[in-house]
Amino acid sequence: MLPSGAGNHPVILEFHGFAGTAAEQSDVSGLGALAAEAGFAVVVFDGQGQPGRSLRWDLNGGFDSDVGFVDLTMPSLLPCAGPVFATGFSNGAAFASVLGCESELDVIAVATVSWATEPCDNEAPLPILAFHGTADGTVPFDGDGNDVLEFLLGLGSGPAEAAIGDWARHNGCTDFTVKQIGPDVQYTEWSGCEADTGFYRISNGGHSWPGSDSEVQFGVTTRTIAASSLIVDFFLAQLV
Q1: Element (DSSP H or E) covering residue 186
Q2: What's the rounded Cα separation, in Å, for the pair 104 and 74?
Q3: Which residues, including other chains, have CB under 8 Å from residue 216's CB and lie 6 or more apart?
Q4: Is residue 72 assigned to a domain?
Q5: DSSP summary character for residue 57
Q6: CA 195, CA 124: separation in Å to the nearest integer?
Q7: Residue 48 to residue 145: CA distance in whole angstroms
Q8: Using CA of residue 136, residue 137, residue 142, residue 147, what is the dihedral sign?
């Protein structure tokens, strides 16, 4: 989806979860229209595989082929693209993080929903905003693991709070504050950072996109916050 007007618009790359599709992800997040209103172009990718047969972002064999695919595809899709951002859900969230670390597109910030991976191996700070529900049964909040997920994708997930804490250290943060937002959401915002770092903890939240009305989700979906609006605001802040 493209915003109105000419120019080199900033671009949000969006990635679906395991067994999802680009169309489903667009419906779940509703990010396209919202981001376009804010001046972003949005590109939603399909993962490898056949539709209806577990499209995914490659974790088992490494991300190299998928990162390379995005790097190769983007110049032809949007040859005059501005700054690039990445976001995704579940398996797509993990891939968005890796893209932020490894892509040649110079991704300047990422946002993850229902899977916060470990920080980049390199030393460069990277702004990150993460969301995770404490009752997520697919990518468990406490990192106990999902044997089926690990078998299918070849990669387990660690505790969400530990992962984002590692990102805060990676980004050079020195302090943090915790704000209660409604009855079920806590927002942790780090300060003194070389790159903005934030985390929304959703009590009893499932494997879902906060604020979404889509039925293609698993467990409780909070209405206290809307992830897509918060992601757009976070990305806009990186352009200042």
Answers
A1: strand 185-191
A2: 11
A3: 20, 24, 27, 28
A4: yes
A5: -
A6: 9
A7: 24
A8: negative
Using alpha carbons, select from 164, 212, 225 the residue that is nearest to residue 190: 164
Tens-digit pLDDT profile for residues 155-196: 556 789 999 999 999 999 999 999 999 999 999 999 999 999
Residue 122 belongs to some domain of the structure: yes
Please report, for residues 14, 65, 163, the alpha-carbon distance to residue 70 in angstroms, rounded to integers and kept in the order given: 11, 9, 25
Query: Which residue has tokens 């990277």?
Result: 126
CATH number, domain of 137, equals 3.40.50.1820
Two structure tokens written together for 152: 């299918």
Residue 234's H or E segment, with its range, is helix 227-237
Residue 200 lies inside a defined structural domain of this protein: yes
Total number of domains constituting the chain: 1
pLDDT at 121: 86
In eight-state DSSP terms, residue 118 is P
| CB neighbour class for 156 (10 Å; exposed up to 12, middle 13-18, buried from 19) | middle
CB burial of 192-215 (b: ≥16 within 10 Å; e: otherwise) equals ebebbbbbbbbbebbbbbbbbeee
Cβ-contact 125, 171 below 8 angstroms: yes
Radius of gyration, alpha carbons of the chain: 16
5 assigned to some structural domain:
no
Range of the domain at 21: 11-237
